Amino acid sequence: MLNVHSFAFNPFSENTYIVYDENKNCILFDPGMYDAHEQMELINFLNEHQLKPQYLINTHCHIDHILGNTFISEKFGLTLHAHQSEIPILNMDRASATMYGLHYHESVAISQFIDEGDVIMLGKHRLTILLTPGHSPGSLSFYNADAGFVIVGDVLFKSSIGRTDLPGGDYDTLIHSIKTKLFTLPDSTIVYNGHGPATDIGTEKKYNPFCGEM
User: Fold this and answer.
1) Given a cut of 60, is residue 214 above it in pLDDT?
2) What is the CATH number for 104?
């Protein structure tokens, strides 16, 4: 069974996730560490649990989700996996950092393009990739049926959805992604999102004010 651990990093309280298996292999999703203290917080967790990073993945490439990309890539020799449509978003990183007044070390480039239908294997465990654009043009979600969770980035939140006023965002596309990709998952599926508390598909289908009852 896969385990999920989250951190809230950087001035945006972005959720960084470590997904790890029984053999201590792990995936790092959206490393948002902003300073040395946050970097050490993540490294200490890895060391404490003797975890071995195998993948560096961005659900999407907005600035708050990529602040730790270069640190992780250099520390563990990992290439960055993300959707090809996120290249222009990643290329806006320095301008975004300047706009928000952030100190920033440029992210590594996307080296491995992943897309809907691809599968990330962590040992014997499968993470199925769903293309869920709208918040960002190449937003990806990662579903593990056995453990019953999906990592969605900023697509869907507890009682809310991702903003669509950033470059590449589109409200109708986002709602379509949620209803046709995420809301087709079992109601018990835990939703690990990019900010705030986790939720589940059934709760959001019933109560999320942006999506309507299904």
Assistant:
1) no
2) 3.60.15.10
